[in-house]
Design brief:
3 helices, 41% helix, mainly alpha
């Protein structure tokens, strides 16, 4: 496996979205279900925000399901969420 992407140790300008994700993660750790969709234009920091949220979740023992969309998925909104919802189902 390759090395983890290097990034600045300080997350700049994403305090509110990160706080919202951490709150959702903490609620999941307490047994409540939830879903977060991180969306936006290319280059605004979605991947970095998701990495920080994942670190928070893993530090608390919260399982993370991750999906990614590609330009070819543009015709099917939320296809990743639909797929994530089917993980572990019988159908």
């Amino acid at each position: 496996m390759g090395e983890a992407p290097r990034s600045c140790p300080v997350l700049i300008g994403r305090e509110a979205p990160l706080a919202a994700l951490r709150e959702l993660i903490d609620a999941a750790g307490a047994g409540r279900q939830g879903l977060a969709v991180v969306a936006g234009e290319a280059g605004i920091g979605k991947s970095r925000l998701a990495r920080e949220a994942r670190r928070h979740a893993e530090a608390r023992g919260v399982r993370v399901l991750e999906g990614r969309c590609f330009d070819t998925d543009a015709g099917t909104p939320y296809v990743c969420a639909a797929h994530a919802g089917s993980v572990g189902s019988d159908g």
